[in-house]
Structures are given as structure tokens and as C-alpha cells.
Protein: Flavin oxidoreductase/NADH oxidase
Organism: Acholeplasma oculi
Amino acid sequence: MILDPFVIKNHTFKNRIMMSPMCMYQVYKKDGVATNFHYTHYTARALGGVGYIMIESTAVLPNGRITYEDLGLWSDSQIEPLKKIVEGVHALGAKIGIQLSHAGRKSRTENIVSSTNQPFSESYLTPGRLSPEGIKEIVNAFKASARRAREIGFDSIELHGAHGYLINQFMSPLVNDRDDEYKDGLKFLEEIIDAVRSEMDKDQLLQLRISAYEYDELGLTPYDWAGILNVIKHKIDMVDISSGGVIPNMVNDYPGYQLPFAKIIKEETGIITITGGQIDNLNLANEALEKEDCDMVFFGRKLLMDPFFIYKYDESLLPTSYKRASTLIKSKS
Ligand SMILES: Cc1cc2nc3c(=O)[nH]c(=O)nc-3n(C[C@H](O)[C@H](O)[C@H](O)COP(=O)(O)O)c2cc1C
């Protein structure tokens, strides 16, 4: 199952494994430009047999970075090294997307902004509440970054609507305390989706990452998100289901902890769903697909630790040059 191909529009993913977006904090000059580290990091996972690589959170504006070491796509000068990564990953037979994001009040940079003027916690800066003009600038920044993502040749764009970053700050009733036309955060999200779509090739896929559950009785639930997604599902191709990070509270995590959220959303909306969370083996991923909890499974920390773990399940997938390594693989993990 998990190693079977998956077709979405005119894209055939060679398997249903997505490398989850993970910040690497490896930009050295605070310029948002990808480095040799990023090239090696992403192509290594493609070499390891991952079907779908998602590049880490990449900011659409300098004050939308989570840290100064994050990737950015607010300038044409950031295009070239990302193009090399895309070419490298494609040459290894994998698809690749980029996660476009704005951290809002969770940014550790300066002059930060949000849907609110309340900080994330005492240890974060106090954000300026965005005016409608400020919002327009951010929507335009997403649009410009999408244009660059098209020029680079990404197969997909993932909008980071999860983990309490800016889109989530507009969507969540735990954060959005506005009384203007953006009180319903869906207006902000839809403006971004429309702007980004207007720059994308018709073959490129648009994916939204959400925090389907906010671990607070007043926060959003998978059922709330299903209702929201039913309004916008004709505009997006896939939803990537995560949870938490909206307010500084505890996440109750265990292997597969987000599968129930994905199942609800898949059943209620019919959208293609990707999820994961503490999944460190392909058997659990297979179970999730068999139970129709989701359509693809993401792996994060497992791939940091063991970029070649897929081949331990199926040695026949080893690249030709590595075939002789199979004589050494004794235990499956
Ligand atoms: C080092 C690290 C960096 C992360 N950075 C991001 C990120 O840039 N964007 C994002 O949406 N999630 C990020 N996450 C969350 C992961 O994408 C993933 O959802 C989470 O780690 C759970 O999956 P796992 O248990 O397979 O690691 C990060 C996680 C880790 C461990």
C-alpha cells in the first residue's frame, strides 16, 4: 500500500511517503538563501526512496521567518539554489513541494505582526495588529513567492496553515480577536489561496497544512476544519493534517496520534489527506492506508534519523548502485 504509486491530477507519486516539512536552521547569512546543506539534506531523502519531499517552512517575507536561519522566497536572489534542489530531487524520481509560510506572532525576528496584538507567550515579542493594508502586502508576498515557486519548477506548494503561524492566527478563535472584516479568518486564507493559485501552473498542486485540533475546548476541531474545507475544497488539491502549536499548551502525542483527525476530515470532505506524527515504520503507515485514515503518510523525525529506512522494508527498491548493500541488511526496522 504505502509503497504503491499514487496519482493526483497528472502527477504520479512513486509511493505514498511524504517527507514532512522540517526547519533545518541552516541558512548562514540571514538571507533566506538555501545552502549546500539543504541540497544534500533533501536529495539524500530522495535517494532514500521517498516519493514526495516537502521543503521546510520558507518565509514569504523577512519578518515572516520563524528564525533568521530560515529559508525565504521573498526575492529572486533566492531562486537559484532551490532550482538545483528541485532538479536533484527530480533526477532521483521524487516529487517536490515547498512550504510557504509566514510566522506572524511566532516569529523570532523583529517588527513582527499578527491578526492580534497579543504575544504568543511572555517569551515572544508583542506583534503589531495587521491593518487591511498590511494584510494586502502579505497576500501579495504569498503571490510573489508562488510565482517564484512556479519558475523554480516545484510540483506543489504547501501553504503553512498549521502550528499557530500567521494563517492559523487568523483562523483560530483562540487568537483572532478582530472586529473587522477579517474576524472570519477564512477571508484571509481564501485571499492567499486565490493569489497563490493565480500564479501557479494548472498542473502544480496546492496543498494546505492545518492544525486540525488545537487541544483546547474553545479551539478548532477536525469537524470545524471539515466545515471550513468543504467551503474551499474546490480550490485546493490536498490537505496535510497536523495539530497543535496555536497556543502554548500540551499536545498528547503517540504513534499515529493525528490519524483520527485525518479520518474525520477525509470522511467529511472527500479531500486527499496526508498525515503522520510519530510514525516510525511502514507497517503503521500501511495500516492507516488500509483503514482509509488518509491517502499518504508523512515521516519527519524518522527520516532525519534514517534516510534509507525504506529500503529495509523492500530491498528490491535499492538503487542499482546500492544493490550489494542488501547482503548486509539483516534486521528490518
Ligand atoms: C526539526 C523539526 C522541524 C520542523 N519544522 C517544521 C516546519 O518547517 N513546518 C511544519 O509544518 N512542521 C515542522 N515540523 C513538524 C513536522 O513536519 C512533523 O509534522 C512533526 O515532526 C511530526 O511528525 P514526526 O513525528 O514524523 O516527526 C518540524 C519538526 C521537526 C522535528
